[in-house]
Design a protein that fits this description.
Helix content: 10-25%
Shape: elongated
Radius of gyration: 47 Å
Structural class: alpha+beta
């Protein structure tokens, strides 16, 4: 009895399990949206190749893989990148340190233009004295002096014998007895006109003895520039005896390039560093800018007055001069060493996040010390590379990364066209002759000769068969496969685009009789 009950119970359980399994199968088939299945991971999609290129000629792009026409090697694909990685060079953080790459921020600072120029000291011609005779005489004694010697005010130079003073002095002494003030003053004036000093006239009236000798002394402190006196010489009236120039202050002549002269004015500060390393810098001010421009050097001379009370500075000494303007404008400054000059354009390497670097075309202003003003191409707060940037620029060129210009706020006096012209590199045109091997509205296949630059005739691309894009569909109208054509192209994004195409006609050969 018990055994039959157990068998019956097992049979019922088995039937119940079979029924539940059938229901579950029905639900799974009829209502799949309620069934949760494990989601398979999305398979990675290979990156899309933008073009293929030869690493040795990265500017030339190809639309399919194959052998390089330039080198015996396979073309390398260039894959699409996203976000900040486009048109940038990424460097491993460890390599950044190994290469010694240093960066600095672009800063906006007040512009106090400095001009570092050569300068030469010379005498201050406003501080000169000339000694001349007003009457003929003879040199009885000349002190041992020569040009270049320093003299002090009152120092004797020469003693003269003047015979023509004697007659007028005798008249003066004779008139004293007449007690005529008017006549006495007339005779004193005559002696002054003959070059007799007032002190000597007073002594003649006091001693009542004529004086025919006079000692000439230096009127100022300075240096003797010229001296024409020798003992025993006979000198005529009006002859120059000596020229003395003061050295309490000197002139510093600074040659300023014509293009920079407008930024400087009288009163601007000047700092003179003599060639002698032991001398201290001397501060002065621009006294004037001479109105004439030197025809040979195309420079304007700035005259700086330097104090020289202690007499350390000497005329003829040359040195370095730093002229500082008084402008108070602001501008973007980067270290001069960060600038890469390629000849056709000027670049800096901008450092973005995650060690990405990219070349940027910039427009330079003036140099202020070791800094250079950037007028276009950069923004305040960006980072530029100041060490290792030449290596980065070479690597970017090999990878075909074209320099780009950042948007920049235009100055009020600049127009949009002016800004565009400043940042757009010149368009070069290339020409070649070839056979049309394929033709469509957008492309033309050419078996062409060398592509040469239109002006310089320099070969840009050697002869090969290649498909080129057309600038517009109208260029292909009227041409057929097999035509010999002359094409003109320009470089766009590193590849040539056909802009014009015409039938190449050759003179027919005349038939031989």
């Amino acid at each position: 009895m018990f055994s039959s009950s157990m068998q019956l119970r097992q049979l019922l359980i088995l039937c119940l399990g079979i029924g539940l399994g059938a229901i579950a199968t029905f639900v799974a088939v009829k209502s799949p949206m309620h069934l949760t299945l494990p989601v398979k991971e999305t398979e990675s999609i290979p990156p899309k190749a933008l073009y293929w290129y030869d690493p040795m000629v990265p500017a030339q792009h190809f639309d399919k893989p194959g052998k390089s026409p330039f080198m015996d090697m396979e073309l390398v694909p260039k894959y699409a990148e996203s976000g900040a990685a486009m048109n940038t060079l990424q460097v491993d953080p460890a390599q950044v340190q190994n290469l010694g790459i240093r960066k600095t921020k672009v800063m906006r600072m007040p512009l106090r233009p400095q001009h570092e120029l050569p300068g030469t000291l010379r005498f201050n011609e406003r501080n000169q004295a000339v000694i001349q005779l007003r009457i003929g005489g003879f040199v009885e004694k000349a002190w041992p002096l020569a040009p270049g010697d320093r003299v002090t005010a009152g120092q004797p130079i020469a003693t003269f014998y003047v015979p023509e003073w004697l007659d007028t002095q005798n008249e003066l002494l004779a008139s004293k007895a007449l007690n005529s003030p008017r006549l006495l003053e007339t005779l004193r004036t005559r002696l002054r006109l003959l070059g007799m000093p007032d002190a000597l006239i007073a002594r003649v009236e006091e001693t009542r003895k004529p004086e025919t000798r006079v000692t000439i002394t230096a009127p100022i402190n300075g240096v003797i520039e010229s001296l024409g006196i020798k003992t025993g010489m006979a000198l005529a009236s009006g002859q120059t005896l000596a020229r003395i120039t003061g050295i309490d202050s000197l002139w510093l002549d600074v040659a300023i390039p014509e293009a920079e002269a407008s930024a400087l004015h009288a009163g601007d500060a000047a700092m003179f560093y003599a060639a002698n390393a032991n001398s201290k810098p001397v501060t002065g001010k621009i006294d004037s800018l001479l109105p004439a421009v030197n025809d040979a050097t195309r420079t304007v001379t700035a005259r700086v007055v330097l104090p020289n009370a202690n007499g350390i500075l000497k005329p003829g000494v040359s040195g370095r001069v730093v002229l500082s303007g008084n402008q108070t404008d602001t501008g973007l400054l980067v270290p001069t060493e960060a600038v890469i000059r390629t000849g056709k354009r000027t670049l800096v390497m901008v450092a973005d996040t995650d060690n990405h670097f990219r070349p940027v075309v910039v427009t330079l202003g003036q140099e202020i010390g070791d800094q250079t003003v950037i007028t276009n191409g950069l923004e305040e707060g960006q980072e530029v590379v100041v060490s290792g940037h030449f290596l980065l620029d070479s690597e970017a060129s090999l990878m075909g990364i074209e320099p780009v210009a950042l948007p920049q706020t235009m100055q009020p006096q600049q127009s949009a066209s002016t800004m565009s012209d400043a940042l757009t590199p010149p368009i070069e045109t290339y020409q070649a002759i070839g056979h049309i091997v394929s033709l469509s509205g957008k492309e033309v296949g050419l078996n062409h000769g060398d592509f040469t630059e239109a002006v310089s005739k320099k070969i840009f691309m050697p002869a090969m068969t290649m498909v080129f894009p057309l600038a517009n569909e109208a260029i292909a109208k009227g041409f057929n496969i097999g035509d010999v054509v002359r094409v003109s192209a320009r470089k766009t994004n590193g590849m040539l685009m056909i802009e014009a195409m015409e039938i190449e006609t050759k003179p027919r050969k005349e038939k031989q009789p």
